[in-house]
Each structure stands twice: as C-alpha cells, then as structure tokens.
Design the sequence.
C-alpha cells in the first residue's frame, strides 16, 4: 500500500509532503517568501532554490547546484520564449504552441520530435470549454544522415487516443478516452458545493466529491472549509491522506 501525506500552514500553503510506500518514505518540504512564492523546495535529496523580482518573475533558480537565469521583458514575458501579439506563448524551447482566435491552445507539438513523441490537439465549444483532446504519436521518423546529409523522413502523426469531455455548466461530469486499440476508458466526476457554498459559484473549486474511473471509485472526504482530507481508490488499495493544521482528523 502506498500513501501520500500533506502538511499545510495556517493560510493553506503546502509545507510538506511525504510519499510513503512499503519500500521507503520520501519527505518533500517547501518554503515561501512573504508573497507566498516558493523559495526553497526539497524533494528527497533533490534541492531547489528560487528567486523572483518585485513583480513575481523568476530571476534565477538553482536545482541540485545547476543554476538557471531568467530575463523578463516589459510585458513580464521570459525573453527566452517567443509569444504572439496577444501574449500567447508560441515556443518554450521544448514545444511549439498554436492558438485559436480566442486565445485557446489548439495544438502543442514537441520541437525535436522523435518516434514515440506525443502531440496534443484540442477543440473547444462556443463558450470556451475544452470538449476534445486528441493525442497523436509520431511514427516513421528518420533523421537526416550521411555526408553530405541526405534528407530523412519526417514521419507522420498517428492518433493514439481521443478524450471527449462532457459538462454540467463549467464542471466536467464525464470524460471518455477512446484508444485506437479499441479500449475505452470512462471517467465520471461527481460534484457537491464548492468554496462559495453553491454548486458552481467558485467555478467548482473545492466541490469535487469523487471520481469513478472504469468502475473504480476515488472517494473524497471534505472539511466544512472545503479542505480535502482523504482520497481513496476503493478497489485498488491505493490511499492518499491529506493533513491540515488546526483542522479535523478523518
């Protein structure tokens, strides 16, 4: 049996996480500045440190003694990335992104794709809810070779699976995942009152009661302040427990 335990400070920021398994437990800790920005993070033996400018842009980070620096422009965009006139990111060094006229991402493609790389294609309805996500896999790619180099084969993107989303207002209630091998996954979401005390006044935040994935139920137990305390997958034996200071114990 595996478990995940969380600790939070008085204003709800996550201070620690313990990943427990029969083999070993890994402790992760997080430290914040007065603006609630993460300045230090420890993931087992993996240590990270972060620094920000006065508006919240990251200036540098150190991850296991490797330092990365960042420069932001006057629009608070990182200069190493490219953007369109609306501020949408077009490339981040790893992926290229395509956006529709309403600034919703429709395609995300790896820049240095090889066989097995995944591309994501999304579609939205008339009010901006994502109703479809298709995952394609690159096959048949061959890089240029020889001297002088001869053109290779760019390969082709082949559909691997398609996610379809159904909503009640802004809350997703059903997701189906159709795989090209013929299998279909069905994920159902059941909602209660969110942080506003209504069904969707806060956009559903804090209102998810449980998920049902192919007959397996992920069940949530909530405090009156809508803090999530326990997450249980009943049929697989995988349990996640969430702990909060100055709150009830479940």
Sequence:
């Amino acid at each position: 049996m595996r478990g995940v335990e969380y600790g939070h400070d008085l204003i709800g920021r996550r201070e620690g996480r313990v990943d427990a398994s029969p083999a070993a437990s890994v402790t992760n800790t997080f430290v914040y500045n007065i603006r609630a920005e993460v300045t230090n993070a420890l993931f087992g033996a993996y240590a990270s440190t972060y620094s920000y400018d006065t508006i919240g842009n990251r200036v540098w980070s150190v991850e296991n003694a490797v330092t990365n620096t960042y420069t932001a422009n006057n629009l608070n965009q990182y200069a190493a990335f490219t953007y369109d006139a609306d501020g949408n990111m077009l490339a981040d060094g790893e992926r290229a992104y395509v956006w529709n006229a309403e600034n919703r991402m429709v395609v995300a493609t790896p820049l240095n794709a090889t066989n097995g790389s995944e591309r994501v294609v999304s579609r939205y309805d008339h009010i901006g809810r994502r109703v479809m996500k298709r995952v394609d896999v690159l096959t048949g790619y061959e890089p240029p070779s020889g001297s002088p180099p001869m053109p290779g084969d760019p390969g082709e993107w082949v559909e691997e699976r398609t996610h379809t989303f159904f909503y009640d207002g802004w809350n997703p209630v059903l997701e189906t995942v159709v795989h090209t091998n013929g299998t279909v996954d069905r994920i159902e979401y059941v909602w209660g009152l969110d942080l506003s005390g209504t069904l969707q006044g806060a956009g559903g935040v804090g209102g998810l009661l449980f998920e049902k994935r192919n007959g397996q139920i992920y069940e949530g137990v909530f405090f009156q302040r809508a803090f999530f305390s326990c997450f249980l997958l009943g049929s697989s034996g995988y349990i996640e427990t969430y702990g909060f200071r100055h709150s009830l114990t479940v």
User: Anything to note?
Assistant: The two ends are 19 Å apart (CA to CA). Residues 1-80 form one domain. Residues 220-250 have pLDDT under 50 and may be disordered.
